[in-house]
Write a structure and sequence with these properties.
mainly beta, binds biotin, Avidin/str, Lipocalin, secreted, 7% helix, Avidin, eight-stranded antiparallel β-barrel, Avidin-like_sf
Length: 148
């Protein structure tokens, strides 16, 4: 094997998922989180960019919940089996925006899990209310398997 080919084999085999080094966590698909919110992530392109939709189970407002668009970015598209990522949800039923950041893991049972943190920015009418306009939290997403 020529030297460059041998090097790329080493890189593929020795990622950080020590128990299952060849298992990949893939963002594309349908997910549900610990609040019961659902999201669908489309294909991740060559730049790591992706789009999708988010159906939250809860809201900080009194508005009726509607499915909202999300846009995100995954780091190192084909080098890491457990990639980091971020995405923004632009809520279609409120004046708020949520940003999520996290990592896609394969857990010890072989299941994919997204461990995320989020910041929810709500709209306030007055700069004096800025101090209370941002919430922070965590969400854990698992893959939704289609029922047949
Ligand atoms: C709003 O209330 O203005 C928009 C909906 C916010 C829903 C939040 S985002 C963070 C947390 N995770 C969820 O799945 N839903 C809530």
């Amino acid at each position: 094997i020529p030297a460059p080919a041998a090097l790329s084999v080493v890189r593929l085999c020795c990622d950080t998922n020590t128990k299952s080094p060849l298992l990949q966590c893939v963002l594309t698909g349908r997910w549900i989180n610990d609040l019961g919110s659902n999201m669908t992530i489309g294909a991740v392109n060559g730049q790591g960019d992706f789009a999708g939709s988010y159906h939250t189970a809860v809201t900080a407002t009194k508005n009726a919940i509607r499915v909202s668009p999300l846009q995100g970015s995954q780091h190192r598209t084909n080098q890491k089996s457990q990639p980091t990522f971020g995405f923004t949800v632009n809520w279609s039923f409120s004046d708020s925006v949520t940003v999520f950041t996290g990592q896609c893991f394969v857990d010890e049972t072989g299941n994919e899990v997204l461990k995320t943190m989020w910041l929810l920015r709500s709209h306030v009418d007055n700069i004096k209310d800025d101090w209370k306009a941002t919430m922070v939290g965590i969400n854990i997403f698992t893959r939704l398997h289609s029922q047949k």
